[in-house]
Amino acid sequence: MYRRVPRWKRILIGLAIGAATIWLVFPFYWAVITSLKVPADVFRLSFIPFVQFEPTLQNWSTEITQRGREVFGGLSTSLIVAVSTALLALTIGTLAGYGLARFRYQRWKNKDIAMWILSQRFLPPAATVIPFFLMMRRFGLVDTRLGLILVNVTFTIPFTVMILRDAFRELPVELEESALVDGCSRLQALLRIDLPLVAPALVSAGIISFAFAWNEFLFAFILTYSKATPMTVVIAGTSDTQGIQFWYVSTRMLMAILPPTILAMTIQRYVVRGLTFGAVKG
Amino acid sequence: MPPPELQCEVMSKLSKTRSSQEHSRFFFIGPAVLWLLVFTIFPLLYSLYLSLHSSRFLRVTGFVGLKNYHLVLTDYRFWQGFRVTLLFVLAGVALTVILGLLLALLFNHPMRGIKVFRTLATVPLFTAPVAIGYLCMIIFYEEGGPINNFLLAIGLDKVNWLSEPVWAKVAVVFADTWQWTPFAFLVLLAALQAVPNELYEAAALDATSSWQEFVYITLPMIRPALTTVILLRTVEAFKIFDIPFSLTNGGPGLATRTLTFNVYTAGLRDQNLGEATAIAFILLVVMLAVTFVFFRGYRSQYDE
Fold it and tell me: Does B117 map to a domain?
């Protein structure tokens, strides 16, 4: 599509790109400057710090010193839940991905198993949220981090299985075949030979799982209320306790947004492939 | 019996992938299958069971057949939720796909800054929807939010974004579209960049217009990716809960209360397990029916 583009068209394209960028960035930018404004400035239309308003770190320090326990409690729960989810989902996904890539299952065909695992993503969470709540209550897992981890692993298994299945398929079989001939077991071959080679896929699948677990809200909201509330539930409580104090709301929002988005930016190459479960190669 | 040479081929193929004899194959697939049986299939069956029973204080009290479904299907709140969900699905999917495709076409030229834009585009995708809801609440805030202040500044009237049913729906669709357009954009851009250049060169020789080029070359080439985007986007749109919850809390009235929202209010606020699971099952069936239309075409992309 590299044909010569007339000047007026180039200008138009430039304008469209500018508009798209503003559209993409504006909500974040607005949250950042809101968090830097004194309450009196928040409801005024002003965009540029130092020029249109005097920025202050007052909101951040109030939030951290006075409500630190709530916020850091939320952040650490989110961190623990998201990391554990990623590790557990990766373990299960690596095994299943390897199995689907290297063996041929017979009663159920490989692609049927893969589609069955993938179809988990097509289920509305609403369909399982109530039984989940009752199950967790039965086993004393309501308001625990373990309960949240179980939920989130369930939702992220399709990502890890599909991403790793793809990655193992792209490895030549010959590599591990020699190892198997030399007397390695399947598991040893997987751990020593294949795993290091699929490291990029592991990292991306891990980050995608981390982000989904970090961002999950419906189940967390229903399953936790005080001891194990992750950041999404903490920010949802903000509006109740603090009304329309947007200057505080935005500080919390930014703390909730930053970890998964920063991680996601590092796996650029895998985002498309990961989020489409390998259907589109990015 | 197949002829010997064919048999031989099958055998060698089998041994090459070392497939079906090794027992360790169950060890690999086992954990995933077991996990989903326990945490997906069992809850689904449990849900079905609950939807056929009455309950009190979160305890099942007796079998009632289809009574819960009857109650749900004659409840105006269900139909309101149903309409709202369908509206969000249609508007959300159409807007994200169209905007995403336009953006992808726009960026499908060699240009500076594309990497930066692509990186920025991943940010909304990995932002918690519930946080997006609050971000948009700040932006759409009626007394002194930036959008209304801007409208006033250019001499227009302010809009009741969050307290008027129609505008509240617009606000929810805006937030949802904002989150998901980058998904369509990134996937379609990847697909566009995979279209071989020779095709366009050949088209240039035939002096086709850019519209013809789009319809006869680009569109057929990116069709699989487009189907994937529409399918995955539709599935996610049916699940929408976080954004209406945080942005409008389902209101004003029931204006932005989706089916998932209804499951939450019926099940956990009113503690009516039977009706809540009945709503959930109807949602599940609707979703399956809609995705089934795409499913066969989609499935082929995962076949070996």
Answer: yes
Domain count, chain B: 1
Between positions 36 and 75 of A, the ones with CB within 8 A of B are 42-45
CATH 1.10.3720.10 fits A74-275, yes or no: yes
Q: Parse chain A into domains and list their residue ranges.
A: 7-56, 74-275
Q: For position B295, what pLDDT does the model report?
A: 61
pLDDT tens, residue by residue, A258-278: 999 999 988 887 888 888 888
Question: Which of A17, A131, A222 lies at the smallest CB-CB distance from B47?
Answer: A131
Rounded to two decimals, the ipTM of the complex is 0.90
What string of H, E and C letters represents the secondary structure of chain B? Answer: CCCHHHHHHHHHHHHHCCCCCCCHHHHHHHHHHHHHHHHHHHHHHHHHHHHCEEEECCEEEEECCCHHHHHHHCCHHHHHHHHHHHHHHHHHHHHHHHHHHHHHHHHCCCCCCHHHHHHHHHHHHCCCHHHHHHHHHHHHCCCCCHHHHHHHHCCCCCCCCCCCHHHHHHHHHHHHHHHHHHHHHHHHHHHHHCCCHHHHHHHHHCCCCHHHHHHHHHHHHHHHHHHHHHHHHHHHHHCCCHHHHHHCCCCCCCCCCCHHHHHHHHHHHCCCHHHHHHHHHHHHHHHHHHHHHHHHHHHHHHCC
Residues 115-144 of A with CB under 8 A from B: 115-118, 120-135, 137
pLDDT in tens, B251-294: 788 899 999 999 999 988 888 899 999 999 999 999 988 888 76
Q: Identify the CATH number of the domain in which residue B146 sits.
A: 1.10.3720.10
Q: Report yes or no on B111 lying in a domain.
A: yes
Confidence at residue B7, expressed as pLDDT on a 0 to 100 scale: 40
Q: Cα distance from B270 to chain A (closest Cα, Å)? A: 13
Q: Residue A3: pLDDT band by 50, 70, 90 thresholds?
A: low
Task: Give domain status of residue B50, yes or no.
Answer: no
